[in-house]
Write a structure and sequence with these properties.
266 residues, alpha/beta, 6-stranded mixed β-sheet, 14 strands
Length: 266
Amino acid sequence: MLKVEPIPAFQDNYIWAIHDGHHAAVVDPGESAPVEQFLAQRGLALGAIVITHHHGDHQGGVADLLAAHPRTPSGAPMPVLGPASERIGGRTRALREGDEVTLAEPAVTLRVLDVPGHTAGHIAYVGDLAEAGRAVFCGDTLFASGCGRLFEGSPAQMLASLDKLAGLPGDTRVYCAHEYTRSNVRFARAVEPDNAALAAWERRVDALRAADTPTLPTTIAHEREVNPFLRSREASVRAAVSAHGGATDSDAKAFGALRGWKDNFR
């Protein structure tokens, strides 16, 4: 039975472990020590390393993991999957949209989407994980109630990437890489103060964080209801952007203004 579990790292990162009780694939291991501790605690063997983009807090632990686990339990070289157009240390397979990856340990098939914006070559992995359900591992492109900063891409690119993710089945679980939900919800409430689903979600987030429980995963359907960056074409969001002084004469301009508002939101 496949499970997906968070491995907390740094201050607010999540490294995601996909495991079957015996073997684990880890997504975006920015540091190795939490991964090693997780594997040891659960008696798991490392079977694959999966990277969404090149930032150090997502791939910084790869070298140490490879040094400790150069081969899979079956003796094959440890697979390191990553975006084709970014520099990923130790990468054994370069991936782009349309590629499909089948891992052996654990047995998982993942489909690749190009989702540039946060970085130029950012990718996401989509899979049907049997008992764990549909999943998307989206790195720093889509967050719970938010999205990543535009470090290397344009508003139009990020909007297209988020549209692509929003088009996934509603029950797809969203496994993003940071616990930014509380601050994202605070901004979302400033954009859509009358969104009832968002108000209920804020109460739920506060309760989860008070209990030191992750707010993730959410679902694509949930994000469509509460995430202003998936709702940038909604009249309520456009009105808020305009009232804040942002341009709304095109989808890309409205999205860019919304992202700029969030960048400076306190």
